[in-house]
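Practice problem: Pre-rRNA-processing protein TSR1 homolog
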Amino acid sequence: MAKVADTILFLLDPLEGWDSTGDYCLSCLFAQGLPTYTLAVQGVSRLPPKKQIDARKKLSKAVEKRFPDDKLLLLDTQQEAAMLLRQLANQKQRHLAFRDRRAYLFAHTADFLPSEENNLVGTLKISGYVRGQGLNVNSLLHIIGHGDFQMKQIDAPVDPFPLNPRVIKSQKDPGMAMEICATDAVADMEEDLKVLMKADPDRQESLQTEVIPDPMEGEQTWPTEEELSEAHDLLKESSKVVKKVPKGTSSYQAEWILDEDGESGGEGDEYDDVEHEDFMEEESQDEGSEKEEEEECETMTIGESVRDDLYDEKVDEEAEEKMLEKYKQERLEEMFPDEVDTPRDVAARIRFQKYRGLKSFRTSPWDPKENLPQDYARIFQFQNFINTRRRIFKEIEEKEVEGAEVGWYVTLHVSEVPVSVVEHFKRGAPLIAFCLLPHEQKMSVLNMVVSRHPGNTEPVKAKEELIFHCGFRRFRASPLLSQHTAADKHKFQRFLIADMALVVTVYAPITFPPASVLLFKQNSNGMHSLIATGHLLSVDPDRMVIKRVVLSGHPFKIFTKMAVVRYMFFNREDVLWFKPVELRTKWGRRGHIKEPLGTHGHMKCSFDGKLKSQDTVLMNLYKRVFPKWTYDPYVPEPVPWVKDEISSTVPEVDME
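Answer key — structure tokens:
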């Protein structure tokens, strides 16, 4: 309702102002975009005179946190009610950008005509006032919570609430004359019905949301023999190594001459299993000393606590275990970002075969069109999104829209609407329709900048299903999280981090910014909790989200600039496979793998300086990740807040 409301009246409690539920609602409204509002308090005059001053001071302090420059109006008498109505009528209207460029309508009445073929689908007649922009029958209509639809025609019935009603007064009984006039107006609505505009099939927007991919479109021809030989020659040239050798040295002798940095300086080239066994014995001795220390500790007997059965009945043990595991993962991610253990049962060259090494994450090239998933064949992409958005907004400002103008009371004939929409409306839920701009029904990749809401502390993982409120749309999706930077590559984040703006990436229908974004999570009890708030950044499938994996190893033997590193890999083949990737350490050293040692994954590495024994050797691997196609436009209604019944002694005020 707040998305289409002209004015919101906040009614405050005379003692507290608002509770935690009210504060939660205010957070959502501020993040979504607050229209014109007025603050009023009811019940201050019923308090004792001494408490009235304290109550007003307390209210003013509470109001200053959220509304620092606004005045609080009283609402206890008829005069104060009249002042409030005057304030609502005369205050300046605030504009929300996402709704000012689109036509929207709040349904006053709705009627459903089932089709002849199927009673579950039919034509929906929505009557209400056109707001925002002019409404064209050829554009698409989005009913919030139900999807996109086409319109058949627009009618102009008699306005049920005219600004200047024609009243015929009778000398005998004026009241009776007024009632007859109102009845006649309702009866004449069908007679005075005018058809403003009918849909033109040639100019009407299509409901197509996805591209039908052609499996033969990406077919490639096999390279010719000339191309294969040319690639082979290039490979030979790149594999040649230039060395300084004495004159008269043959190519066979040159193979045995080491580089200057290849000299290990002593015992580095000799490696056998005896040294490995000695190290294992030292570790076993350390473990024995730790056990002796544990045995020296004292033990104390603590009395048994009384078990509270009523409390334990309310605890869901399975949910508690899952939440504990998520907290552990979030804590590990903070302490050791992106670090993973190299698997022992699977070769690292197979487990990380989709990853690559980069010389520099910021400057190394990465083609955005490389290895795209199959879902990218289903979406739409703009050649220049910013220019398209600017052109559409310019047409809205300059071009006159054919059809219903702003302020008219109209009836929209919406085709192929399910009967559940009317049933939802009859149960008391508001029916709100927004007119879509060109291309806004088509699927693409949306990027949104969000910040975590301070009231939520539960860990939120990437690819976890969330509920999105993006502009006028509401949908469910499993987003990717990434850093908000100005570079061409953006690092993937595994958790939603507090006090840091992140970018959320999902498959969703195109929406032209500006548009507010709210992220909710559905709890097990059916309620929606606010996770994060932000705004729509762009519609760009080429924005690259890069996932980083860090493999760690430990220096076993350290020489001048050489070191033997272990525990990063566990077989010789993996060391040879990842040999071209650059190494780094936590203390800022850089190096590379020289050669494998033995068959257990130990490797000789050279660095740009001497390593410390407590340093850790790291290898960064990267791959591009894409969101999952989990878009669902149908979001279940949240369970309403449970309100306590409060007996009020405040007298009722006739607002009429």
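Discussion: The mean pLDDT is 80. Students who identified this feature from the tokens alone can consider the problem solved.
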